[in-house]
């Protein structure tokens, strides 16, 4: 257990440094990792809070893979905590985000295919 708390301290230091140098990716990954550890410690509400902020930052940066992973973790943590509503909410956002990403990817490929055909 002590190692988890030490890891949280280190990630909090990383978070503060990332804020100071305006590194959104560093902030998002530190918060993501803090959320993961808090989940293992069964501090679900704090884990959800950290992951929500992490998700927002990943969305602002436009990192789809990280958004999907964060949403998936939010679904799992909400489910573990007994919050079926939040679990369903984040599940819906996860699938909506995935569908949106796939549609954009297909449209981009079609556009590129048309350029090649010309």
CATH architecture: Alpha Horseshoe
Strand proportion, as a percent range, falls in under 5%
* Count of separate structural domains: 1
Listing every helix as H and every strand as E from the N terminus to the C terminus, the arrangement reads: HHHHH
Counted beta strands: 0
Whole-number mean pLDDT: 88
Q: Give the helix/strand class.
A: mainly alpha
CATH-derived topology = Serine Threonine Protein Phosphatase 5, Tetratricopeptide repeat
CATH H-level homologous superfamily name: Tetratricopeptide repeat domain
Oligomeric organization of the protein chains:
single chain
Large-scale geometry: flat
Q: Write down the Rg.
A: 17 Å
Unreliable stretches covering 5 or more consecutive residues: none
CATH class: Mainly Alpha
Helix content: over 70%
Any descriptors?
118 residues; mainly alpha; Serine Threonine Protein Phosphatase 5, Tetratricopeptide repeat; 5 helices
